[in-house]
What does this fold into?
Amino acid sequence: MACSRMMWATRAATYLRISVPFTLRVRGFSSVLRDLKYADSHEWVKVDGISATIGITDHAQDHLGDVVYVELPEVGASISQGSSFGAVESVKATSDVYSPVSGKVIEVNEELNSSPGLINASPYDKGWIIKVEMSDKDETNKLMDSDQYSKFCEEEDAKH
Amino acid sequence: MRIPRSLEVWKMGTVNYLDALKLQEKLVADRKTSKIADTVLSLQHPPTYTLGKRRTDHNLLIPESELKKIGAELCYTQRGGDITFHGPHQAILYPIISLRDIGIGARNYVEKLELTMIELASLYGVRACAGQKGETGVWVGERKIGAIGVRISYGITSHGLAFNIDPDLSYFKHIVPCGIADKEVTSLRKETDSMLPTEEVIQEQLISCFARLFGYSNLIWKEKGSILSDNGENR
It folds into this structure.
């Protein structure tokens, strides 16, 4: 059963890789985007010059359940790689979220105050959480790329 | 191949809410650095109302100043969930476990906490079920018998579940429990005609259900009743 599901997923991924410009890889049922970097706490970061946009991955939102509340940091706050910058609440559980990079918060996604579900519906796009002015671009070298992250997720899911 | 997993169980008797919170913070830090293994605290609280991270204090229906008169305290916490009441004869479990080690997320964890209470209820012939979407917890029909509120930090859990064995349900009248209006709160005592054993036995059964659902094959029981005494003032 799992075998034919993987075959379907691989075929779909191959098809999509040809037809979609930014290359969406499909692993199991969680999507992973090629041009992002990933932390092992399931946050993604998109780097644009010294600016970084951060959110949580599709795998993360799926494992959380429906997000009902997002605790955002203040604009101007300093954050460091690996430390918590906020939290999301789902199914009566608050889960801390961690920054993949260090720097200063320059923007937060205020939409999430009224529509926390954007994190579930659009984790890589409308569900972005914060934007950071990075203090050290080289920190992204410590993060995983999409292939490494996909494998990481598979290994985690296989534990139970 | 499954490696046998160990769970340390702390049987703590009645513990003041804030004392238990401080203990959990320490244990979470210890679990994060692997100083300790997965641990679960089994205890009860004196009458305490608690609020979650969202601070939904509009769901407390009496002024805070009135709480002392009814023998209760109010505590603000970082857990998920709305307002709830904890008190004597309500079994509480606070698992301090690493979700990353077992590869599950918040949703799966909370589902298993619900199942823990559902299984316990079934031991007494009570058919409980998980809540509908947005109503996390354990219900017997339209009546809530078990509540959940969890915090996950670096993949380590704290807070947990509260199962009503036979608490004084009138305390729930002073809140909109879990922010859900028009739904009653119930207890094992109310829902079953069966003879109930001692609460200690019921709490041990709750722990056994938890351990089975989470795949712990080795339980290490520790009597920790004396390490935190009740807050002595005015009790």
In short: DSSP finds five helices and eleven strands in chain A. Confidence is low (pLDDT under 50) at residues 17-27 of chain A.
